[in-house]
Design goal:
By secondary structure, the chain is α+β, with helices and mostly antiparallel strands. The chain folds into two domains: 162 residues, no CATH class; 122 residues, no CATH class. The protein has twelve helices and eleven strands. The strands form five sheets. The protein has a three-stranded antiparallel beta sheet with strand order 9-10-11. The protein has a two-stranded antiparallel ribbon with strand order 1-2. Strand 1 and strand 2 form a beta hairpin. Helix 6 packs across helix 7, helix 10 runs antiparallel to helix 12 and helix 11 crosses helix 12. The longest helix is centred in the C-terminal third of the chain and has 24 residues. The chain is globular. The N terminus and C terminus are likely disordered.
């Protein structure tokens, strides 16, 4: 192999190095590539841990076995071969992202642009995990060690995934669901709010709502443990208290006017749904004695006034009792639930 021309250019203040290689004869070329968002040394560690050898056929066989094990979490029958192919192709697509963001040594780039280490995190440990859940770059048996920090993830296109993909994960991949939510909490602690559409440790500000709230509420409703319920509630409630993207008007009158923000109707519906999810966390705390939920209950009274706004200012009032500041916590939550149910019914009638 002869090295050809090598060039170096400056684009946007950053060096862009390029090289061309010329081969005297055609043949098999094997290349290994590793990445890290932390450092070159981190990439080297990842390569040494994940791909130490040069046996291409073994790598291909291992990848095929790993994917077959993941896809076998759901067994379908009765359809045509084409329908089966379509189903498993779609299931495969749900598993491409989110992606592990930390290096094998546990280091990762936080939302604050600082390097953090998962080795400093003590994870509560999920009590319920799907058989064969993938963990630590391999297929692990059911369950996770209590002191396992899990993984840091990235690529949360939550507006696209909160409706169907994440509810699916709570059924077939509870281990990753716990890792996702713990990632959310760390991103809130490091970046100041829960992710909306996170990519590589950056908030892209793409799409609307704050649907990480929905993902958390769904896991709590299904009894999935392994993350701090109180921290998750505090982070979710914080999302409702911001004033950007129409939230100031939404808090003032219970809806977003076209003068407040573009996509006003869509934003109102997205925020109303996410607030309803927070209300369900409060309701769950009231109705159950689950460890950790009593902490949510203790903090829930302060959040009810915010949750009630989804039905304020004449949004929907017919046949629904008013929400009084002097009402009991449980009664006020019940009012919020009735108003949200009425809103859902109205939307269905106006389609």
């Amino acid at each position: 192999m002869d090295c050809g021309r090598a060039g170096r250019s400056i684009r946007g203040g950053k060096a862009d190095a390029k090289a061309n290689f010329y081969f005297k004869s055609a043949g098999r070329l094997e290349i290994k590539v590793a990445i890290s968002h932390v450092s070159i040394e981190g990439a080297r560690k990842n390569l040494a841990a994940e791909l130490p050898g040069w046996d291409f056929e073994k790598v291909r066989a291992d990848a095929k076995a790993a994917w077959n094990k993941e896809l076998s979490k759901i067994d379908v029958s009765g359809g045509t071969p084409d329908q089966t192919t379509t189903f498993y192709t779609a299931l495969y697509h749900t598993m491409i992202q989110p992606n592990i963001f930390n290096d094998v040594d546990g280091n990762y780039l936080g939302m604050d642009k600082k390097v953090h280490s998962l080795s400093q995190v003590r994870k509560l440990g999920p009590e319920r995990t799907a058989p064969g859940a993938k963990s630590d770059r391999g297929i692990a048996p059911s369950g996770t060690k209590k002191d396992s920090p899990g993984d840091q993830y990235t690529v949360f296109s939550l507006w696209d995934t909160f409706r169907a993909a994440h509810p699916l994960y709570t059924i077939i991949d509870q281990k990753r669901t716990v890792d996702f939510i713990n990632t959310f909490i760390r991103q809130y602690e490091q970046g100041g709010r829960l992710p909306v559409w996170e990519l590589a440790g950056e908030e892209t500000e793409c799409m609307i709502g704050y649907h990480s709230v929905s993902v958390i509420a769904d896991a709590m409703a299904k009894g999935i443990t392994g993350f701090d319920y109180e921290k998750a509630y505090v982070a979710a409630k914080h999302s409702t208290e911001l004033d950007h993207f129409g939230l100031a008007g939404y808090k003032k009158r219970g809806y977003i006017s076209m003068e407040d923000e573009n996509e006003s109707v869509s934003r109102t519906l997205e925020y109303a749904y996410d607030d309803w999810c927070i209300a369900q966390k409060t309701n769950l705390a009231i109705q159950t004695g689950h460890e950790g939920l009593h902490l949510v209950k203790r903090k829930s009274k302060a959040g009810l006034a915010v949750l009630a706004r989804t039905a304020r200012r004449g949004f929907i009032t017919s046949g629904v009792p008013a929400i009084s500041k002097t009402s009991s916590t449980q009664k006020r939550v019940s009012c919020v639930r009735k108003r949200m149910a009425a809103l859902s019914s109205l939307l269905l009638r106006t389609k």
